[in-house]
Design goal:
By secondary structure, this protein is α+β, with helices and mostly antiparallel strands. The strands form 8 sheets. A 9-stranded mixed sheet has the order 1-13-14-11-2-3-9-5-6. The radius of gyration is 31 Å and the shape is globular. The N and C termini lie far apart (75 Å).
Length: 649
């Protein structure tokens, strides 16, 4: 988190005459609020924020240091939200906390209000490290039906203003944020989320500041509010909720001194590139001589640049073990990481960058924000938005994006976590540019079964699972991290009626090829065949649950990559059984060619062939297409619940 120290502009001799807005006081809990047992706008809510408010202004009682007064009043409806009574407030370096007050309200048997207060001795301060400390307290006497109310103030000698989240994982009745900002400071103000502001008021007080010898100055006052705010509910296939949850953000843009000199704090991309090289890459982009000494001569002597690049990629990929950390910015030390054979994303991919440079292959770096970190601001560079770095190389006019942190990624494929729109390609000589990140390989999975059903109620035969793209990356990792027996035990646990009699795998280490797993299987039905039999032919890779369950989803569905899943079954039934009914052929399409689901069935004598295909043709679907996706998966589940009905002749 970046903090910029506040410039006080002769405030030691100045006098703030602006009238600050009233901050919310304690003691607003009512009996009607205590009697509430359910929130009528969301009956599933385990708690609801009755009111929350923050007010930021220059505090004349503390040398005009910006002060933010926070107030919260929350109704606890269910014990699942008892954790809301555990309050943790983070303080950075010179920030100070004042005027903590916290109370729990309960309804007595006589329908009166009982109040329990947090005592000073129950408030704890913990030094987390040299930069951060945490103030903690817990509201007492908590019950289902309690209301917790608390307030505190933070004095901060920094220009940064914390984001205000109107929305959270519980609903809110009223949320407001007020600011009074001295005219010397300009901010880029951004609202995120699909909800509209119910309150958005702005004014200018031209006489809020008086500076001796200079005269009067202005303050920009703003008041923002949202009312009856629904809970933000997360679901599968989404980017970071930071992109969608309703909030307001302030990024400092410029400071004007009392002499009228403007200092721009919003940097240019050219300045950002230099900062990235010096501070974030820790000058680790000029180590090619070290890597030239450490790369095998057999790799450096390869004359074909593409083959040389692939071998360098595999060398770095197999040399390092990723420590599960992303880009630690200024702490990167590639020589030390190389010697230790372990590193974070920055150290591994900077090693790859230097190695390709040492081999005289055109190479650049690209910075990005991962899917769980939020979409970075494009209007102006905020280098702290980025938490990841990858390598881009151009060979024979073709671009390849590389990340050597995963031992199972083929050359040119980036991890799913990086598929977050665009990356910023760093060019130290010319202008940097935005580049789209897309998968190099298509992601498909094929389940091919050839089975024979005996009169004893046993399927016997072969199953082959073939995977490409991200499906293959995930499967290779799962296979490689387990021994054969453990892997097959897990497979049989997933498909509880299946017994694996033999197993082979092909192309496990050939990352550019399709991964094939071949099983000899025996599937017990649990009983001998009777006169009439129902069996579900969708034995593997069946869609058992709908990933889309919300009544309303106001943010996009992001699959990250397109995909295709195929299932083929060739089933031979006993000669003395006839087929009474089969699953119906179906074809369901998503709007705008977004995807398709098909079932085809062919019967020839006692052989039944069934094939299904689930195809998602786009990685992103708008919120308006949500219900079509929800219905799409619902129909897939219904279709795969269909049975074959056999009858003995």
């Amino acid at each position: 988190m970046k903090k910029i120290a506040l410039l006080l502009l002769l405030f030691s001799t100045s006098f703030i005459i602006a009238q600050k807005k009233k901050s919310t006081k304690m003691g607003l809990t009512t009996l009607d609020e205590l009697k509430m047992t359910i929130y009528d706008k969301d009956s599933t809510a385990t708690a609801v924020v009755l009111y929350e408010h923050a007010n930021r202004y220059p505090d004349r009682d503390n040398d005009e240091i910006p002060r933010t007064d926070y107030y919260y009043r929350i109704k606890i409806l269910n014990k699942a939200s008892f954790n809301l009574a555990n309050i943790k407030i983070n303080l950075y370096k010179e920030q100070r906390i004042k005027d903590i007050s916290a109370k729990t309200y309960n309804l007595t048997d006589t329908r009166t209000m009982h109040v329990s207060s947090v005592l000073k001795k129950d408030i704890f301060t913990i030094e987390e490290n040299k930069n951060w400390k945490t103030v903690k307290f817990t509201l007492p006497n908590l019950k289902e039906g309690s209301i917790i109310e608390y307030k505190y103030s933070i004095l901060s000698p920094y220009l940064s203003i914390n984001d205000w989240y109107f929305q959270s994982d519980i609903p809110k009745i009223k949320s407001e944020f007020d600011t009074s900002i001295l005219g010397n400071y300009k901010y880029n103000i951004k609202k995120t989320g699909y909800l509209k502001l119910d309150k958005n008021e702005h004014s200018v007080d031209k006489k809020c500041v008086y500076v001796d010898g200079i005269g009067e100055g202005t303050c920009a006052t703003s008041s923002y509010g949202m009312y009856n705010i629904p809970a933000f509910k997360e679901e599968e296939y989404m980017l970071s909720k930071k992109n969608y949850i309703s909030k307001i953000s302030f990024d400092i843009k410029s400071i004007t001194s009392y002499r009228g000199v403007v200092e721009n704090l919003t940097t240019t991309w050219k300045q950002a590139d230099k900062s990235l090289k010096k501070r974030f890459f820790n000058n680790q982009t000029s180590k090619k001589s070290f890597f030239k000494k450490n790369l095998p001569d057999s790799i450096l002597s390869i004359t074909n640049n593409l083959e040389k690049a692939k071998n360098i990629y595999r060398f770095i990929q197999n040399h390092y073990t990723w420590n599960e950390k992303y880009w630690s910015n200024k702490d990167a030390k590639v020589k030390q990481a190389f010697d230790n054979k372990t590193g974070d994303i920055g150290e591994i991919n900077l090693s790859l960058y230097n190695s390709l440079k040492a081999a005289e292959i055109e190479t650049k770096l690209a910075v990005l924000s991962t899917r769980n970190n939020g979409i970075p601001t494009k209007l102006f560079p905020v280098i702290y938005d980025y938490n990841y770095v990858i390598v881009k190389t151009n060979i024979d006019g073709k671009n390849y994006f590389l990340d050597a942190s995963n031992k199972y990624l083929p050359f040119g494929q980036v991890p799913i976590r990086t598929l977050n729109g665009e990356a910023r390609e760093i060019n130290y000589k010319e202008k940097s540019s935005w580049v789209a990140l897309k998968p190099k390989y298509s992601s498909t999975v094929n389940f091919t079964c050839k089975l024979k059903l005996s009169e004893e109620g046993v399927f016997e035969g072969n199953l082959m699972i073939s995977k490409n793209g991200y499906f293959a990356v995930e499967q290779r990792e799962e296979i490689s991290l387990k021994n054969k027996d453990s892997y097959l035990d897990d497979f049989e646990a997933k498909y509880i009626d299946v017994e694996v009699e033999d197993y082979t795998v092909k192309n496990l280490n050939n990352l550019d090829k399709t991964l094939h797993e071949i099983f000899k299987v025996r599937i017990e039905m649990g009983e001998e065949l009777g006169n009439k039999l129902r069996l579900n032919p969708f034995l593997f890779n069946r869609v058992s649950k709908n990933p889309f369950k919300l009544k309303e989803r106001n943010y996009p569905v992001d699959f990250a990559y397109t995909r295709r899943k195929n299932y083929y079954l060739n089933l031979e039934i006993p000669d003395n059984y006839k087929i009474i009914s089969l699953p119906k052929k179906r074809a369901i399409s998503l709007p705008n060619k977004g995807g398709k689901f098909t079932i085809n069935i062919i019967q020839r004598n006692n052989i039944i062939t069934i094939s299904t295909r689930i195809q998602i043709n786009r990685s992103i679907f708008s919120s308006e297409e949500y219900f079509a996706l929800k219905e799409f998966y619902k129909q897939i589940i219904l279709s795969e619940n269909s049975n074959i009905v056999l009858e003995k002749e």
